[in-house]
Amino acid sequence: MVKILNLISLWALPAIILVVLIVGLIKKVPVYEEFTDGAKDGFKVAVNIIPYLVAIIVGISMFRACGAIDILSGWLAPLLNKFHIPADILPLTIVRSLSGSAALGVFSDIANHLGPNSYATKLAAVMVGSSETTFYVLAVYFGAVKISKIRYALLVGLCADFVGIVAAIFVCGLMFG
């Protein structure tokens, strides 16, 4: 079964590209010209979202550099311990909604510091997979299509992040706690 899956994963992308080219030729679509036009549009979108990306990166850097995450972790540690939640994962719960790469950096710190088999590392791994980078999505994707009224999307995104984190804590508590 593994050999079949490896073979499928090896040939899936070339097969999709070949099918697109064949369908384009059959329908007499100028495939190369359409591709280059799409690439130009993609470049324009990338240039348009640069200010949003810079704002997110600066905000995250300031939040981490000033020590706000560490201070908040210290304040909430007694409450987290009451519910058997390691205080080490609090920075991840804060940063995950802001940036995926920052969340992976925090996760790497947790895994390096506590070891790959610790409860906190397992919980952090599940949290990374069960929540979204809400602020990044809103800034980049909504900014790319010029949507400025994000109030309800922000509320729903943060609620979904909260539910994902609570579910991760619950499931990991059952499985590993």
Please outline what is shown here.
The protein is 81% helix and 0% strand. It has helices spanning 2-26, 31-65, 68-82, 90-95, 100-114, 119-129, 134-144, 151-175. The chain is extended and about 65 Å long.
Jot down its keywords.
single chain, mainly alpha, extended
Radius of gyration: 21 Å
Elements, N to C (H/E):
HHHHHHHH
- Work out the helicity level: over 70%
* Arithmetic mean of pLDDT: 84
Structural class: mainly alpha
Indicate the overall shape.
extended
Count of DSSP helices?
A: 8
Low-confidence stretches: none
Largest sheet: none
Q: Please report which band the strand proportion falls in: under 5%, 5-15%, 15-25%, 25-35%, 35-45% or over 45%.
A: under 5%
First CA to last CA: what distance?
A: 33 Å
The tally of strands reads 0
Structure write-up:
The chain has 177 residues and is mainly α. The protein is 81% helix and 0% strand. It contains eight helices and no strands. It has helices at residues 2-26, 31-65, 68-82, 90-95, 100-114, 119-129, 134-144, 151-175. Helix 2 crosses helix 7 (134-144), helix 5 (100-114) packs antiparallel against helix 6 and helix 6 runs antiparallel to helix 8. The radius of gyration is 21 Å and the shape is extended. The mean pLDDT is 84.
